[in-house]
Amino acid sequence: MRISALAAEAGLPVATVKFYLRERLLHAGTATSATQAAYDESHVRRLRLVRALLGPVGLTVQQARTVLALVDEPGDDLYATLGRAVSALPPAAAPPGDASDPFPRARAALDTLGQVYDPDFPAVAQLEGALAAAESAGMPISAERLAHYGRVLSDVAEFDLARMPGEPHAAVEYTVLGTALYEPVMLALRRLAHQDAAVRRLRGDPPPVE
Amino acid sequence: MRISALAAEAGLPVATVKFYLRERLLHAGTATSATQAAYDESHVRRLRLVRALLGPVGLTVQQARTVLALVDEPGDDLYATLGRAVSALPPAAAPPGDASDPFPRARAALDTLGQVYDPDFPAVAQLEGALAAAESAGMPISAERLAHYGRVLSDVAEFDLARMPGEPHAAVEYTVLGTALYEPVMLALRRLAHQDAAVRRLRGDPPPVE
């Protein structure tokens, strides 16, 4: 198809598609003349991914390019690639504290949960900042709450990982979008579940069996 | 204690404490002379709350004032008050779509989960936006995933609600801070649980029993 048909198919202005081509977020089409190129389904799929990364996921063009490079070249060490792809997503990692033990709260929490602790993985800094904020507000996460949240989210992680495509390019794409796009879904569902639980309690329904 | 001791206790500059007093985010002390006032533990606690709302929670002064008014005057209908307090937190609700059915994806999702649907509760608009974003990225939430996330987050909500203080002022404060401050903890824990699950899989550990 021509660029105008591609743009229509993706629901984007032609100028935007040209911008993505210039920025090399979208691969070139097959030249059919000096001034025209043909595009196919692979371009439609790519546009959907680029649009998600620059839209709901909220990346800059430079950050999107980093993620797309990992989708295109997942390399041999898929685990490291997935980690790098997630690291490119917001929020940006907070700077470490004391060099000998940069993330003490996160380290202790992961130790309690029996999970791997890798200070180079940005979510560790993210957890440290979140735990410190709760603490300074006078609402530190109790050991009981940490254990409960940790168990529940390990359950979610197993569910997510079991559905990861085996093909490496698709695995990176699934991981990036599944992390960034499903996070807002989970937060909204938690707030709605609070509301639902509060309504049931007010109505005097019996609590669910745990 | 004097204002200087209060500021020191809260770890804030005196100018910041004075600003909170002027903005009526902090209640006045007891006048001890024409130019001095005495402050107590209630001021220290309040400063911790104000600092959390304006800092990690990310509210504007006007939004913080709305939340604090609900903490101070929870009223008779605690359920409505908690809803209003959570509604003051980011993200701001997206505008509704078609007036006859403004949030069709969220309505269908909550119907599937057997949860209350109240279009006036901002988390409904939040869920609608998140589901629409996932859909347009070509990664719609499957019925199976929705059921799984919904079950897990109802479990979290029951846990959270069971620990809500009975005293109304404290209940509003717990709900606001527990919503806003524990959300980043949960997101970081999910990312870390993904990493942990991926490491275990690469090592060839058996999957956990579901």
UniProtKB/TrEMBL annotation, chains A, B:
Gene3D superfamilies attached to this UniProt entry: 1.10.1660.10
Organism, as annotated:
Agromyces humatus
* Name assigned to this protein: MerR family transcriptional regulator
The leader peptide range reads none
Q: Can you tell me where the transmembrane regions are?
A: none
Q: Which InterPro entries match?
A: DNA-bd_dom_put_sf (IPR009061), MerR-type_HTH_dom (IPR000551)
Q: Which residues form the HTH merR-type domain?
A: 1-70
Q: Which SMART domains match?
A: HTH_MERR
